């Protein structure tokens, strides 16, 4: 028998996106009956999409031997199949619309009864999200199939429903033709991962409606029109609108507008004789006018993040509490905007954005990035066969989400190249909803969009765009159009690992050019999957940890939150950068300058406190009266008369903080939204550099002040009896993801090339003179003629030891240095650090705004930042002094002359560099202490620009001075 090739493609390999589904419509709750079909379903996983169904759709089918699986969930996170991560690459041959024969396919079954009072009449089965393609049977009858993983699908089911024993059977394919449209940078995870419900649809009910609530900023009045096919009436009692007809524009008089800063919602009801739908109305008008994106007549600054849905145990199947936590964490970190990268989120998240106030770019579930790897050959965006599938995606998003005031821009999708289908999506959207501008980044000419959007654009180029001085593009009409548009960075500041550096510099650009209206940091959360070792140790997996053949490693861990939603130092920095009020104390003139940086809200609700600290301890504090400032307003406030700083009192700092004066929906009373500080007087508490102790040679030992040295090599052995491993010049750091620069210029590769990870020291000379021990060495790597000449000059008095480290490059260095300082070993029991300097969090030259000068305490273990892939972290900067103590309080004090950076960990830099996950790091019997003059900046070259020149650490003559004293 000859085998025949299948002529008619199966539905999962067809360009046709769906069959049998209802037209897209708004998502809303109403008083009509509904049945929650989430819960425990029967489940089996088959290896191929063409596996016979075996009659599983038949109500009589026996599924008692099947597994159970929760809905909503991804089957890979419940022990069926495995997660896989790729960024751009399709995990299958690019052979559209075909997908591999090995195509995991999940069959789901659920039997349900209708409640006794279930009404007669139309009923709809609604799936909020199924990844990636599914066919549905109810009571043995096939309803149809659908694609569009992050989009709702509805089927009419009234004719098939019975009171008892309804059998719902769903077959879900991991891969389908639609997978070509869903190449987002995320885990490939499948299944029914959003809610499933049965909705009764009253015959005279409301199938769909579109709320248009405009705000005229010149008159302060609102208009309300609710478009619907139903015989409906709208009531918003607060506006005096009672049973007003739909499809009519109502002038509702003065209203409080909606904004992300003041998210005023009016609660109303849209009703027919058969159904009542609660509606939440936010009056706002979005436009692009005079080259700026405005809401209610005011230009916006988008202080945004890109949010993928993520939970370390549940993947993209998010519960309501997690969504709420995201919204609250954003608000508490001064974030005002979200791009729903790269698909419409669970609809509840948009309710939260309406409620708490976040500007939203709602993005279509579309990305065809993998085609870039073949020169965009065959890209669906420019292939008419994919036209309906792409347009349907847009339609389903716009219709679902059109009633959310928080949604101010529609985005066509992400990284899908260029083509007619995108233009068609834009044209349809513009006609359907003229009230929202359109975003798409992937077409550099921007001919059919309303904002000019780019990603990872270096600072210099953003500046040029801000000045309308970007290079011209080929088509003069397109060029002129793009030049007339406001500019947003839909992605910037890649928050992968340590960093991102350079945030403050972006903010300064946003503030100095009207055209630059902010951007969205990439990205909100690391998509790490929680795993547990047999002993219970938790860690988070990334690409490759599930044995994937093709994967993109830890590129999936590039968020401002760790997977468990602990804020990373990058988020703390972002919160500081985006403070809604800017506070600049000027102790010399006895004033504080306060500026309201918000676009809509005044400063009522904030209260201001000041404090004067001496060497980190509060000396006096009080309340500061600040008038309520309008958006953009500035004031100079007189400080109360500050007490004189005693000469010997150390440094005096003036701190001013703005906190919430009462609980608000997203944070408790006392939540700090902004702070500023300035040196108010005094001088470093450090005693003058000691000198005067004579080096004394003894039996195999050289003594200098409190320290002993090896008399030949000059290597330090003890300080007041504390055994140390001698300080050695160190230039190496475990490269950060941003040093590695997967998508940029890798400075880490250069560092390794010149051997900074394998430096050796050649002793040149040890000389002992009257009051100093001088050791000279040359530090260099095998196979390289580059070196660093090092002079350690040790001096001291009876109880302090001073090191002056002088370095000089030998040869011409091709790149900045990772760090410059010394590494030494301390006994493991000195595990608590108290320091006076910037903190409490880590800081590097280009990510240090959130670190404030003060007195901080952490254990060595707490100094570590658990980036999913271990790398340089935990540096503390501008340290005046640091005390490393054992439990009994004894230990070692290190002083800077004037300041130094430090990091301390229980493993070496090399171990940190080698480890792939934090739990692989094992504590050694010593503390590795790094005392540095400086680090190179961090930048965000893991996917974007590197370290700005002003934050680079150049190989040049440097001097670091440190004093060591015992703590008794
Ligand atoms: C962008 C893309 C994102 C993500 C990011 C890197 O190009 O739009 O989805 O991949 O790069 O993390």
Automatic annotation (TrEMBL):
<dbReference type="Pfam" id="PF02836">
    <property type="entry name" value="Glyco_hydro_2_C"/>
</dbReference>
<dbReference type="InterPro" id="IPR036156">
    <property type="entry name" value="Beta-gal/glucu_dom_sf"/>
</dbReference>
<dbReference type="GO" id="GO:0009341">
    <property type="term" value="C:beta-galactosidase complex"/>
</dbReference>
<feature type="region of interest" description="Disordered">
    <location>
        <begin position="1"/>
        <end position="23"/>
    </location>
</feature>
<keyword id="KW-0326">Glycosidase</keyword>
<dbReference type="Pfam" id="PF16353">
    <property type="entry name" value="LacZ_4"/>
</dbReference>
<dbReference type="Pfam" id="PF02837">
    <property type="entry name" value="Glyco_hydro_2_N"/>
</dbReference>
<dbReference type="InterPro" id="IPR023232">
    <property type="entry name" value="Glyco_hydro_2_AS"/>
</dbReference>
<dbReference type="GO" id="GO:0004565">
    <property type="term" value="F:beta-galactosidase activity"/>
</dbReference>
<feature type="domain" description="Beta galactosidase small chain/">
    <location>
        <begin position="703"/>
        <end position="965"/>
    </location>
</feature>
<protein>
    <recommendedName>
        <fullName>Beta-galactosidase</fullName>
        <ecNumber>3.2.1.23</ecNumber>
    </recommendedName>
</protein>
<keyword id="KW-0378">Hydrolase</keyword>
<dbReference type="GO" id="GO:0030246">
    <property type="term" value="F:carbohydrate binding"/>
</dbReference>
<dbReference type="InterPro" id="IPR013783">
    <property type="entry name" value="Ig-like_fold"/>
</dbReference>
<dbReference type="InterPro" id="IPR006104">
    <property type="entry name" value="Glyco_hydro_2_N"/>
</dbReference>
<dbReference type="InterPro" id="IPR050347">
    <property type="entry name" value="Bact_Beta-galactosidase"/>
</dbReference>
<dbReference type="InterPro" id="IPR032312">
    <property type="entry name" value="LacZ_4"/>
</dbReference>
<dbReference type="GO" id="GO:0005990">
    <property type="term" value="P:lactose catabolic process"/>
</dbReference>
<dbReference type="InterPro" id="IPR008979">
    <property type="entry name" value="Galactose-bd-like_sf"/>
</dbReference>
<dbReference type="Pfam" id="PF02929">
    <property type="entry name" value="Bgal_small_N"/>
</dbReference>
<dbReference type="InterPro" id="IPR004199">
    <property type="entry name" value="B-gal_small/dom_5"/>
</dbReference>
<comment type="similarity">
    <text>Belongs to the glycosyl hydrolase 2 family.</text>
</comment>
<dbReference type="InterPro" id="IPR011013">
    <property type="entry name" value="Gal_mutarotase_sf_dom"/>
</dbReference>
<dbReference type="InterPro" id="IPR006101">
    <property type="entry name" value="Glyco_hydro_2"/>
</dbReference>
<dbReference type="InterPro" id="IPR006103">
    <property type="entry name" value="Glyco_hydro_2_cat"/>
</dbReference>
<dbReference type="InterPro" id="IPR014718">
    <property type="entry name" value="GH-type_carb-bd"/>
</dbReference>
<dbReference type="InterPro" id="IPR023230">
    <property type="entry name" value="Glyco_hydro_2_CS"/>
</dbReference>
<dbReference type="InterPro" id="IPR017853">
    <property type="entry name" value="GH"/>
</dbReference>
């Amino acid at each position: 028998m000859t085998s025949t090739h299948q002529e008619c493609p199966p539905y999962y390999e067809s360009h046709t996106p769906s069959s049998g589904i209802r037209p897209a419509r708004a998502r809303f709750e109403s008083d009509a009956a509904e049945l929650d079909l989430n819960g425990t379903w029967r489940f089996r996983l088959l290896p191929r999409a063409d596996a016979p169904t075996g009659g599983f759709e038949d109500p009589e089918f026996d599924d008692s031997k099947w597994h159970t699986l929760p809905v909503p969930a991804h089957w890979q996170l419940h022990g069926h199949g495995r997660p896989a991560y790729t960024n751009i690459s399709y995990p299958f041959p690019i052979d559209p619309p075909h997908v591999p024969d090995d195509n995991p396919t999940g069959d789901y079954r659920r039997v349900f009864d209708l409640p006794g009072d279930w009404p007669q009449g139309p009923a709809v089965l609604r799936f909020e999200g199924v990844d990636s393609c599914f066919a549905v049977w109810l009571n043995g009858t096939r309803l149809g199939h659908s694609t569009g993983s992050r989009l709702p699908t509805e089927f009419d089911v009234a004719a098939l429903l019975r009171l008892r024993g309804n059998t719902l059977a769903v077959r879900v394919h991991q891969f389908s033709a639609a997978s070509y449209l869903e190449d987002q940078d995320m885990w490939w995870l499948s299944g029914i991962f959003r809610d499933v419900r049965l909705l009764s649809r009253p015959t005279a009910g409301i199938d769909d409606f579109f709320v248009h609530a405009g705000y005229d900023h010149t008159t302060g009045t609102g208009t309300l029109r609710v478009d619907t096919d139903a015989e409906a009436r709208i009531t918003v009692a607060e506006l005096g609108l009672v049973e007003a007809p739909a499809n009519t524009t109502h002038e509702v008089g003065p209203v409080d507008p909606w904004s992300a800063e003041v998210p005023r919602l009016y609660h109303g009801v849209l009703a027919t004789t058969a159904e009542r739908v609660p509606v939440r109305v936010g009056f706002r008008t979005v436009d692009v006018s005079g080259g700026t994106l405005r809401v209610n007549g005011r230009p916006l600054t988008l202080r945004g993040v890109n949010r993928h849905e993520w939970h370390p145990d549940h993947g993209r199947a998010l519960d309501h509490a997690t969504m709420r936590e995201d919204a609250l964490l954003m608000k508490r970190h001064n974030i005002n905007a979200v791009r729903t990268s790269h698909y419409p989120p669970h609809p509840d998240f948009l309710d939260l954005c309406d409620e708490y106030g976040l500007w939203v770019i709602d993005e279509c579930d579309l990305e065809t990035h993998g085609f870039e790897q073949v020169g965009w050959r065959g890209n669906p965006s420019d292939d008419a066969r994919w036209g309906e599938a792409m347009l349907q995606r847009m339609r389903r998003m716009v219709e679902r989400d059109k009633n959310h005031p928080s949604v101010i821009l529609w985005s066509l999708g992400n990284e899908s190249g260029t083509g007619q289908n995108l233009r068609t999506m834009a044209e349809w959207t513009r006609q359907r909803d003229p009230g929202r501008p359109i975003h798409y980044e992937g077409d550099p000419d921007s001919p059919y969009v309303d904002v000019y959007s780019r990603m990872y654009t270096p600072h210099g180029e953003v500046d040029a765009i801000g000045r309308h001085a970007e290079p011209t593009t080929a088509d003069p009409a397109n060029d002129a159009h793009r030049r007339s548009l406001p500019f947003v960075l839909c992605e910037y500041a890649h928050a992968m690992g340590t960093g991102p550096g350079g945030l403050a510099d972006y903010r300064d650009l946003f503030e100095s050019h009207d055209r630059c209206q902010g951007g969205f940091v990439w990205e909100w959360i690391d998509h790490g999957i929680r795993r547990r070792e047999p002993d219970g140790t938790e860690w988070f997996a990334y690409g490759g940890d599930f044995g994937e053949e093709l994967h993109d490693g830890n590129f999936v861990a590039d968020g401002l939150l760790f997977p468990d939603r602990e804020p990373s130092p990058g988020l703390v920095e972002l919160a500081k950068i985006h403070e809604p009020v800017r506070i600049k104390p000027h102790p010399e003139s006895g004033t504080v300058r306060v500026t309201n940086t918000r676009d809509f809200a005044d400063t009522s609700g904030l209260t201001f406190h000041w404090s004067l600290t001496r060497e980190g301890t509060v000396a006096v504090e009080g309340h500061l009266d600040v008038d309520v400032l309008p958006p953009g307003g500035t004031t100079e406030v007189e400080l109360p008369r500050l007490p004189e700083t005693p000469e010997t009192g150390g440094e005096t700092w003036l701190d001013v903080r703005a906190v919430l004066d009462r609980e608000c929906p997203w944070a408790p009373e006392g939540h700090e939204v902004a702070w500023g500080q300035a040196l108010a007087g005094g001088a470093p508490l450090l005693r003058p550099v000691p000198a005067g102790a004579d080096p004394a040679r003894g039996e195999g030992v050289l003594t200098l002040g409190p320290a002993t040295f090896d008399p030949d090599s000059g290597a330090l052995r003890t300080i007041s009896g504390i055994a140390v491993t001698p300080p050695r010049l160190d230039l190496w750091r475990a490269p950060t993801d941003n040093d590695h620069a997967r998508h940029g210029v890798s400075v880490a590769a250069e560092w390794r090339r010149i051997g900074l990870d394998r430096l050796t020291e050649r002793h040149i000379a040890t000389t002992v003179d009257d009051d100093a021990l001088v050791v000279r060495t040359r530090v260099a790597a095998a196979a390289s003629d580059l070196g660093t000449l090092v002079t350690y000059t040790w001096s001291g008095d009876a109880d302090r030891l001073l090191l002056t480290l002088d370095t000089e490059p030998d040869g011409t260095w091709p790149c900045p240095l990772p760090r410059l300082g010394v590494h030494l070993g301390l006994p493991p029991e000195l595990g608590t650090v108290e320091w006076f300097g910037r903190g409490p969090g880590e800081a590097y030259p280009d990510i240090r705004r959130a670190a404030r000068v003060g007195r901080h305490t952490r254990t060595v273990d707490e100094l570590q930042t658990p980036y999913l892939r271990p790398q340089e972290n935990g540096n503390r900067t501008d340290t005046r002094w640091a005390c490393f103590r054992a439990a009994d309080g004894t230990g070692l004090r290190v002083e800077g002359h004037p300041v130094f950076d430090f990091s301390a960990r229980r493993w070496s830099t090399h171990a940190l560099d080698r480890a792939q996950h934090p739990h692989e790091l094992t504590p050694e019997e010593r503390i590795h202490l790094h005392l540095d003059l400086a680090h190179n900046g961090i930048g965000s070259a893991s996917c974007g620009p590197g370290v700005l020149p002003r934050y680079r650490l150049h190989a040049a003559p440097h001097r670091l001075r440190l004093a060591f004293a015992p703590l008794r």
